[in-house]
Amino acid sequence: MASFRVAILGCGTVGGGVAKILLEQREALAARAGIEIELVRILDLFPAASSKRHGLPIELYCGGSNELSREEAGQFTEEILKDDSIDLVVETIGGSGQAILDIALSVLDHGKHLATANKALLAKHGPAIFGASNRNSRAVGFEAAVCGAIPIIKGIRECFTGDEILALSGILNGTSNYILSKMEAEGQSFDAALKQAQDQGYAEADPALDINGGDPGHKLTILLKLVFGLDVDFEDLPIEGIESITSADINFAQEMGCSVKLIGYAKKEGDDVFATVRPMLVKRANLLSDIQGATNAVRLDNRYSQENVLIGEGAGSLETGSAIVSDILFLAKYGEKAVQELPSSDCRLRSFNELAFRYNIVFTTADVPGITGIVATAIGNQKINIDTVSHNRHDPENAVFSIATMPCTYVQIQAAIEEIQGSHPGSLLEEPKIIPILGE
Amino acid sequence: MASFRVAILGCGTVGGGVAKILLEQREALAARAGIEIELVRILDLFPAASSKRHGLPIELYCGGSNELSREEAGQFTEEILKDDSIDLVVETIGGSGQAILDIALSVLDHGKHLATANKALLAKHGPAIFGASNRNSRAVGFEAAVCGAIPIIKGIRECFTGDEILALSGILNGTSNYILSKMEAEGQSFDAALKQAQDQGYAEADPALDINGGDPGHKLTILLKLVFGLDVDFEDLPIEGIESITSADINFAQEMGCSVKLIGYAKKEGDDVFATVRPMLVKRANLLSDIQGATNAVRLDNRYSQENVLIGEGAGSLETGSAIVSDILFLAKYGEKAVQELPSSDCRLRSFNELAFRYNIVFTTADVPGITGIVATAIGNQKINIDTVSHNRHDPENAVFSIATMPCTYVQIQAAIEEIQGSHPGSLLEEPKIIPILGE
Fold first, then answer.
1. A318–B304: do the CB atoms touch at under 8 Å?
2. Catalytic choice (B112, B124, B219, B261)
């Protein structure tokens, strides 16, 4: 039986998972692929530690010492790239700088398929990488780059191909969802929930990209290209994280029959695609409201098949590793035929703030008689219909209440707030909190 | 641009959906497949009616008259089979008799790919059909045969391939789920909910296969082969439908924090695969409990990536049609490479009744003092641990109560019941209702 030969560059959390599965499932994978999948080399800066951590034979590691110098690592990378017997390289080094981009491009330029979990790299350098893929007729597997074990990439490229995706919404970051779930289920503060996420290993020591929406933003950037053919500059995507979510917000949400979730959202209307990552109030009737802990979920709203929801683990060594192994198998089976140009379109990215959506607005006001009327009138002046005014909380000093709107734009709401601030200066004690409501 | 030419045999609900999508999405499909997908012929016994119903050009129909004789239909079938320019035939005639099997085999023997939604045919004649597929190097697309728009077939064959599926559980029949949802949400009787399902077009005039578990049984038979390499004779699969579910059962379930769902279930332990289709009490923490209406859902429990759940519409013209179109695209892109032998294994089908599972047992007893103790003792004698005894309902004549067990086998429970019937004849007024409990 011929074999399909694989090398792994970077054997940390995800690379280690890939190696482990390739070795443990060798027979099953061969039967499934119709060809032996052979792990031939692993390159990691710390061979001994990686080998020990993942229980992998040290003989597979380039060098095999305790630590490689950058220079040695560079030489071994060259060796792997020039080894014509290697069919596919797994890039699990991480980072999105020039050095990693060069390695990814070199893999393809040297006639090898590439499999990667690197969402930041693809979000920033997608055109360069997929250009090299097409130029060399070598494929890029990136199932693991978006929502780990959820087969959303092959889902879009190979499964929902008989349909037209009109909108997508998803919980694309496990750490944020873990924190929000803990705040909701156990009444924890944001800081306490974040600390627990870090203790559980879900959040990095520097959790910035997880909680500021950057990580799901990278994923959404990739999905926008795949689904709508949209080339989005990551910097142009309106992104808001969960840092500003308080226990009070969670309580309001629960009273409204909603959960607060960090949602990656995109909707196509004509040639406009409205997209964002931001916290939303998700109605209980929407399955996304039920996704607990570090789990991810993606919902597609399709022209013909209506809703499809895919749920699974978004991170983890073996979870993400299994997604990369599925790419290896796919490329072993379909080879060059799996090289696909990413879709292009005339669509343009529009600000989510111009899309009509339901919103909840929380006003913290001075305890002035008539303030509810003043606020409601200003909203009405912007031709926004109000669904409910509710959840009043008074204390001697001020009043907190929320208004849920019928579909309107964020821009309209901002105009209403400006009107209140102009006609009744000082009546709004805080900037009103405006959160979209995701319905059924 | 070259084209990939498609003919449709049988243009009813599903075939009509396929044709509609192929025509409406012609440009998008070509861009996605890298080749024009051309619908060249439709064969239906009633061309005029089918054309009118689906808004399809009559010119595509063989004959084009009001009605074809069986003889004419046979001649047109021959024509299509012998037309070397046709690459793929969609079989959406339905039925699982010899005539349909012959057509399916002929498609492959004439060197054409086959796409079908026919679960009964595949469940009964899988080996013959996939044998012909391999023999002729022509593929069978059957995404639409299991859970309509949910990409569970490509999910298993192309996406979760880097993992090992240990168990699956799913809501595989929309009609049953619609009925159970209505009974739960609106307190309807079984008969009223069934009538509503028929009025809504979810259930056939003869709903037998939907509500007696036959339809999900066909789907589970196909999944058992795909996932575990198990050749199951459909007749050997233990299947129970929802006919016996009463409003009282639904109420008991709700009190226990469960929903009643018709579950297709399979679990591998060593070389044993325990499988069944039957009503289960599904705990609220399990997402399958949230699936409402005619929606389908499949959950996979995997060695590496843990749980994955796929949710979507299981039936409908365009929903199922879109799944077939995705098969057409897949085969247009990957051609012969998409021909895959189905997995084989040494696994054997074991009775679900021998698998340790949590159960709920509802006893209807004469109102005899001490009956709870008698029942609990008999259960203890079979070394079954009791989780809870609860939900007593007394009336002057009799008592109804339920016992939820820790994991035990159905066989153990039966032995306990026999003991009670032996030692206290007449104390059990009805055959106790034994329903498995599906936890998190």
1. yes
2. B219
**Does the beta carbon of B415 lie under 8 angstroms from any beta carbon of chain A?**
no
Among B25, B34, B287, the residue with its CB nearest the CB of A311 is B287
B165 touches chain A (CB under 8 A): no
Q: Check if B7 contacts A (Cβ < 8 Å).
A: no
Beta-carbon separation of A328 and B160 below 8 A: no
> A307 — contact with chain B (CB < 8 Å)?
yes
The tens place of each residue's pLDDT in chain A, 440 residues long, gives 589 999 999 999 999 999 999 999 999 999 999 999 999 999 999 999 999 999 999 999 999 899 999 999 999 999 999 999 999 999 999 999 999 999 999 999 999 999 999 999 999 999 999 999 999 999 999 999 999 999 999 999 999 999 999 999 999 999 999 999 999 999 999 999 999 988 887 777 778 888 999 999 999 999 999 999 999 988 999 999 999 999 989 988 998 999 999 999 999 999 999 999 999 999 999 999 999 999 999 999 999 999 999 999 999 999 999 999 999 999 999 999 999 889 999 999 999 999 999 999 999 998 788 888 999 999 999 999 999 988 677 777 788 889 999 999 999 999 999 999 999 999 999 999 999 999 98
Number of domains within chain A: 3
Mutate to test the interface with A, among B24, B54, B307, B322 (most CBs of A within 10 A): B322
Give me the CATH number covering residue B288.
Answer: 3.30.360.10
Strand A88-91 relative to strand A3-9: parallel, antiparallel, unpaired? parallel
How much of chain B is in helix, strand and coil states, percent to nearest 5?
Answer: 45, 25, 30
Would an 8 Å CB–CB cutoff place A413 in contact with chain B? no
Same domain, yes or no, for A277 and A395?
Answer: no
Q: Which listed residue (A219, A261, A267, A433) is catalytic?
A: A219
Out of A31, A143, A305, whose CB is closest to B319? A305
Cα four-point dihedral sign A375, A380, A382, A388: positive
Is the domain of B177 the same as that of B308? yes
- Tell me how many residue pairs between chain A and chain B have CB atoms under 8 A apart: 174
Query: Of B330, B352, B374, which residue is a domain's last?
Result: B352
Hey, is the C-beta of B309 within 8 angstroms of any chain A C-beta? yes
Contacts of A307 in chain B (CB under 8 A): 295, 311-313
Same domain, A37 and A131: yes
Report the residue of A304, A340, A342, A347 to disrupt the B interface, i.e. the one with the largest count of B CBs within 10 Å. Answer: A304
Domain CATH code at residue B371: 3.30.70.260
B219 in catalytic set: yes
Contacts of A312 in chain B (CB under 8 A): 305-309
- Is the same domain home to B323 and B284? no
Rounded-to-integer distance, Cα A118 and Cα A101, Å: 10
Question: Do B190 and B262 reside in the same domain of the chain?
Answer: yes
> Is B162 in Cβ contact with A29 (below 8 Å)?
yes
Clarify whether residues B377 and B280 are in a common domain: no
Q: Look up tokens 């060593």; give the residue.
A: B270
The pairs formed by B372-380 with CB atoms below 8 angstroms and a separation of 24 or more are: B372/B401, B374/B420, B374/B423, B374/B424, B374/B427, B375/B403, B375/B416, B375/B420, B376/B403, B378/B416, B378/B417, B378/B419, B378/B420, B378/B423, B379/B403, B379/B405, B379/B413, B379/B416
Residues of B in contact with A310 (CB under 8 A): 308-311
The reply to whether the predicted model has a pTM over 0.80 is yes
Chain A contact present for B144, CB below 8 A: no
Tell whether A37 and A159 lie within a shared domain.
no
B309 and B332 share one domain: no
Instruction: Kindly provide the b/e burial profile for residues B68-106, where b requires at least 16 CB atoms within 10 angstroms of the residue's own CB.
Output: beeeebeebbeebbeeeebbbbbbbbbebeeebbebbbb
C-alpha distances out from residue A98 to A76, A104, A215, A403, B117, Å: 19, 10, 19, 48, 49
Domain that holds residue B37: 3-149+318-338
